Amino acid sequence: MNSSVTALLVSHDGARWLPSVIDGLRSQTVPVRRVVAVDTTSRDESPDLLRQAFGPAHTVPGSTTFPQAVRHGLDQIPEEGPEAPEWIWILHDDANPAPDALEALLAAAAEHPDADILGPKLREWPSLKRLLELGITISGTGRRETGLERGEYDQGQHDDIRTVLAVNTAGMLVRRRVLEELGGFDTQLPIFGNDVDFGWRAAAAGHRTIIVPGAVVFHAEAAHRGIRRTPITGRHTHYQERRAALYTLLVNSQGRSLPFQLLRLGLGTLLRMIGFLLVRSVGEALDELAALVSLYGSPREILKARRARRGKAVVPPESVKPLLAPAWLPYRHGLDFLGDVANALTNQASDVAERRREAKAAVAPPSLTPTRPVAPDDEDMLAEDTGVVARFLTNPVAVFLTLFGLLAMVGARAAFGDVAGGGLSPMPANTRDWWELHLSSWHALGGGTAVPPMPYVLPLALLASLLGGPGPAVSTIFVLAVPVSLWGAWRFLRVVGRLVAPAGAPRGILLWGATTYSLLPVVSGAWGDGRIGTVVVAMLFPWLAHAALGFADPDPDRRWRAAWRVSLLLALGTAFAPVIWLAALVLGLVVVAAAFAIVRSVMADRSVWGPPAASLGVVPVLLSPWWIPAVIHGAGEGLLLEAGRLPSPVVDARDLLTGRMGDLGAPWWWGVVLLVLAVLALLPRVTRIPVIVCWMVAFVTALVAVVLGAFQLSLAAVTTDVGLGALVVVLQGTFVVATMIGAQGMALRVARADWSWRRVLAVAVAAVAVAVPLTSLGWFVAGTQDRLDEGGGADIPEYMVQSSMTGPEHGILVIRGDLDHGLTYNVRRGDGVTLGEDEVIDLTAEDPAFTKTVRALTSRPTPPVVDSLARRGIEYVVLPSPADGDVAAALDASGGLVQASAEDRSTRAWKVSHALDPHALDGPRSWLRIVLLVVQALGIVVVAVLCAPTTNRRRES
């Protein structure tokens, strides 16, 4: 193998590692042509070692940065002639290459001739087995990402050659021309971060960087670990690393995201400082602040570097984005950090308690050792609460719940990634679209409309802002639907069990109730059909019910706090499924009326009936930017719809009782089993009253569903039933609670009974009940029928779609059907109908003038008709396959329409040749909506504050 390679070795006080590094270079199976050593005025014997091994070393001042040292070394290497190398192999004085490292790198370069930068697998030195890096990237918060677990050992699990953003300079093999073309390493990064920056610039310039796991280099990471200090790093290694990370992000990120990046890094720095202070790392916290101030105080430096990079970039930033760390990764690191802090505090408390216990045992004489159980003191109790892992593994309920949650996430595998299909429209391109939809009073949809979007757009926009986009936000909801429902149901049912009996419900019964409820959105078919409204309500319902239990608290302050919590959760549920508020209103009226009839004296206290009334009354205030404009603009039917595409699933009486929606749910007879169990729950006398309460809630819910189900909503474009999916889940949830309470009463009765037949009957019923969640989970994990991966129609040419994305005035008029059976039309703008826009379009009243224009276009098109299309922002007219021949012939003969190409021959398309009106979709601004948005924002803040516990506690006398 021909080795046109020159090794460039940079050294500073590396005498402890250099002998091994020199031996590693000399033992290469493919020898390097030449070694150029650059020493930055080492104070140890490093220059002597380099001189003995490779001849005179090039000595530069100690203040020389790593990029400057590399630049100095390159100047010593001929650029032309037979001595000019093709490759430069950069090594550190603490990076020892394996004997076949260079051979593996060159073999990969021959196999991948398009690769210009290659990096080896880095393993820890001196342990030799722990992995350090196999390529690197950077997160949106500036964290250096390797994709490896902490302390991960090399077992060949990552030995695939792949494209990465960057590789470490310790062992980097780079083409000489690429290194020169990119100007070497950035001198603004004196020692840290120059590898990531160089790889990012290389990717933007169209160069490919790959990782070669077959090449191994052992790296001591002396500078990073603080083993060695240089005049550049000084005592503040963390400052240099953090400044390098911030600088790399700011100079390489897209221009349009720079303001957001500045804000995010500023807020992120404050959070990181708090985190370091929590673990008593004051120095690192100050380094974080100093790094931020250093960069934000030098904007010219950032702008200059951005201009330099912009001049050498040849590929769009979107091409580099896949090489960056995922947007969700910083949030996972945040959770990991919190877990580490909790573990550290737990371990510290455990050590303290153990030392105190040992001290007590050593001091106390044997005669004073208690011979009877005594109440443990605080230290003993704290010690007993430690050992989380041991307690977890010995707790079968905890293990089962964990496995159940993991299997549920396996069953939800269809929701990973982009989710769309069934009742779920595609996601918008970015989070900004949701914010604009929520904040705007006029929307460039169809012919333009002032109909407000449903209120669920706001929580989705907030979630997308946290998770990095609409796609991750919706995917997270569907993936965590079962685990979050499981968590909430376990929490709620445990409290219910304690209200029924002081000892609480047996854990087996709690386990059955929580798991059965958590699967309701799945077995009902709502999950598989993408009915996000029903799924979100299923996740919220246990938490809402738990908050509502606070209405029975004897403390008035707690009752009012419960009111604000209920109002916030109820408003969130109503945002996705408005019928929830109607059902809660009817239930509240029934409960209050019954209470007045039974305990009139108690209900005379305003703090008793006031909290439920307040919780119901606050919801319309929090959702006022939606329902008030909807009523004003004639879209009041939206108060009965549910989030998602229309028409809503038809829910009849059997669906209500069996908990099924459409054809994507589990077999209906599984729902019958739950219904029968809820009926049997009425048998135990000891728990009959709370079970009757559950049945009363179920009756009210079913009554509301039956009444609303008798109506159909005739909208402009579709006729649909009322969205009742959320009520189906609520009704089944009450069955679960009733069954659990009845099982608790049955367990008490069987424990006291002497008759064996009752025990046999209880065991038989329990076996049937246990089969419900287990078979439901198995059905879900095996792969339910779902529509979450259905793509949209491809009957519009792609170039037209791209044109429509350039502005709302580039609309596409899509005409379907034929003259014999009738024609329908719709106008596509932007990226089509996305989640949040469905209801706006369906609730917008038909425009008679535009309908008249379309009718004239399909019968007797004239130049004035075509001109009116241009004035309405219509650029293309499309007749999807199969196109009606008579309509197509009329459009072919029309002046002002030019035939356009279509991928499908049976699809016909025309372009409007008249000039488009750029202001065609402009609309008025509604000051009323602006005021309502302000009221909503203030209301959310006030209610959230009122939800918090009070700090004004009375002193006990």
Description:
The chain has 39 helices and 19 strands. The radius of gyration is 34 Å and the shape is globular. The model is unreliable at 344-386 and 950-957 (pLDDT under 50). With 957 residues, it is α/β, with parallel strands linked by helices. The strands form four sheets. Strands 1, 2, 3, 4, 5, 6, 7, 10, 11 and 12 form a ten-stranded mixed sheet that branches. 44% of the residues are buried. Strand 13 (712-714) and strand 14 form a beta hairpin. Helix 13 crosses helix 14 (378-384), helix 21 (507-518) packs antiparallel against helix 32 and helix 25 packs antiparallel against helix 27 (606-622). It folds into four domains: 5-232, Spore Coat Polysaccharide Biosynthesis Protein SpsA, Chain A (Alpha-Beta Complex); 329-394; 409-781, no CATH class; 798-912, no CATH class. Helices cover 53% and strands 10% of the residues. The longest helix has 35 residues, at 329-363.
Summarize the structure.
The protein is α/β, with parallel strands linked by helices and 957 residues long.
SSE arrangement:
Elements: E1 5-11, H1 18-26, E2 34-39, H2 46-54, E3 58-59, H3 66-75, E4 87-92, E5 95-97, H4 101-111, E6 115-124, E7 131-133, E8 137-138, E9 144-145, E10 162-163, E11 173-175, H5 176-181, H6 194-204, E12 208-219, H7 222-225, H8 237-252, H9 258-278, H10 282-296, H11 299-312, H12 317-320, H13 329-363, H14 378-384, H15 388-393, H16 396-411, H17 431-439, H18 457-467, H19 470-479, H20 481-500, H21 507-518, H22 520-523, H23 532-548, H24 556-576, H25 579-598, H26 600-603, H27 606-622, H28 624-632, H29 653-658, H30 668-680, H31 688-709, E13 712-714, E14 719-721, H32 725-752, H33 756-781, H34 798-804, E15 811-818, E16 822-828, H35 838-843, H36 848-859, H37 863-871, E17 874-879, H38 885-892, E18 897-900, E19 908-912, H39 927-947
Parallel strand pairs: 1-2, 1-4, 2-3, 6-12, 15-17
Antiparallel strand pairs: 4-11, 5-12, 6-7, 6-11, 8-9, 10-12, 13-14, 15-16, 17-19, 18-19
